[in-house]
Amino acid sequence: MATNPGILTDFPWKPLGNYKYALLAPFVVHSIYSFLTKDENERDLTNFLIFPFILSRMLHNQIWISLSRYKTAKGDNRIVDKPIEFEQVDRERNWDDQILLLGLLLYWANLTVKGVSNLPMWRTDGIIITIFMHAGPVEIIYYWLHRALHHHYLYSRYHSHHHSSVVTEPITAVIHPFAEIIMYYMMYSIPWVTAMLTGTASIISLFGYVAYFDFMNNLGHCNFEIVPKKLFTIFPPLKYMMYTPSFHSLHHTKYQTNLALYFPFYDYMYGTLDISTDTLYEISLQREGESPNVVHLTHLTTAESIYHLRLGFASLASKPQSTSPWYMRLLWPVTSWSMMVVTWFYRRTLAVERNIYKTLNLQTWAIPRYTIHYASPRQRECINRMIEEAIVQAERKGADVLTLGLLNQGEEINRKAELFMRRNPQLKLKLVDGSSLAAAVVLNSIPEGTTHVAIKGNLTKVSSSVAIALCRRGIQVSTSCENVYTRLKQKYDSEIQDNLILSDSCSQKIWLVGDDFGKTEQMKASKGTLFIPFSQFPPTKLRKDCFYSNVPAMSAPRHFQNLDSCENWLPRRVISAWRISGIVHALEGWNVQECGDMMFCMDKIWQATLQQGFRPLPVRTEF
Description:
Layout: H1 25-37, H2 45-74, H3 86-91, H4 97-112, H5 124-149, H6 152-163, H7 178-188, H8 190-197, H9 203-221, H10 229-234, H11 245-254, H12 265-270, H13 277-286, E1 294-299, H14 305-308, H15 314-317, H16 332-345, E2 350-357, E3 360-367, H17 377-396, E4 401-404, H18 410-423, E5 430-432, H19 435-445, E6 452-456, H20 461-472, E7 476-479, H21 482-496, E8 500-502, E9 510-513, H22 519-524, E10 530-533, E11 547-548, E12 553-555, E13 574-576, H23 577-588, H24 602-611, E14 615-616
Helix pairs in contact: 1-2, 2-4, 2-9, 5-8, 11-13, 19-20, 19-23, 19-24, 20-21
């Protein structure tokens, strides 16, 4: 929002929310119906192509968003290092408003303005006119309009909304108040109107000009330098005809320089070129990827989780996966296709997120496999290979700790990681699976005064440690699974025999639940039961008369930077215990491994985590 919002700040369809696209429906239906029912000579191809063009613009922008977030997470060629937070993601959530607006304007013009329908596919003279009208009138008018928008009166009411984003993402380019967008569209329409008045308009000149705008806007705001120096060497005048990402980035950090639209020529002409433009371009172009101190290794979960990945849809990534909107189900063909593409074409981990905390540079790497792939022996072999490659890559980059935040089959994966480390004793990297902190979080989520808890679901390293710790504290632990009871007895018989109980009773008010906690069991719980997950998958919330705790996690300190996406099902600025564990190990400088059967001291890591600024989440136990 602008500092002092002026009139026509909001788009008129803001109250409609995501239903704003219903405004397009009549035009789209009419376009398709007319194209299918009219004779070939009467069909208006221009009208029919408007909707596919709208979709292509969205895809084009989304590709830039994903590419930008991937490149800036890795760090190579990144221009500005400052963090992006949830506030910016929320402000830029409606980047598609300008696409919807132009779509409506194109449909209206096509149906009412002479010369906008039945356009030829190509006219060379019209394309030349469009190029010259842009290079001259559009660029000059934009330059002086832009300077005017930086005057205090207009800046505080309109343009400051755009400049709220010091660190830009591709979609930042189109985040403007409604009145400002209208001014831009009036200016950008000059080449179109000229071509139409001269009878030289064509489909390519119309849609191609918009595609050029989209490309240049995304390029200028992507926050990584991508324009090769060789282009300017081959054709030196290009320096005055095409800006670079670093060129426009300076405008967002210094405000009063580099004001041109896409042609730096006008900044050279009017003396507003920033003196550090060439230097920043060289530095950004040569910048190498960062060396992380801590790497968090994770993977995709459900089919729709790819949209919630930070490289996916920014607005969805900023919310927990459990809040995925209903209309995402309509994308199931795209979702299925994306799963196949990810599975067959990606064989290496991807850097998906970069964070900074205190002196640590943190990165999250995702294995491009879904939860269902862990059940496939062939895929599991591929996953093990990717994990080993990730360990070697993290070691090569100089990382101190790699956390195995793998959401499925974690016990087996961790044992194989331990074997890999034993086979490669020269590695300095510390592997941490986070079990000790996850167990500590579960223990500290149990309300004081509890005397009896039940364990449901698969027995894991975390649940075993929690059960033993509770028994040692004199708290009775019951399980209805004979296999779980036998395994715990065999492991710790002398220490827990008095407090470990095999029972089918469902009267306990505290249930510790794991991955195989079924719906039938959940319905047997008494009213007011508190379900505390000890795995990374939360149970399905079936009972309104019971309480559900989060999976083991803690809230991030205020100074934890660049946190602009949610971790799986967790709320904003909440981080899983598995991920936090590696951060704490690195901050404390502990020279220990925690994978396979190895377990770190729960009390020690709990106290260290609190001292490092992480805070436990509140546990609701009252209606």
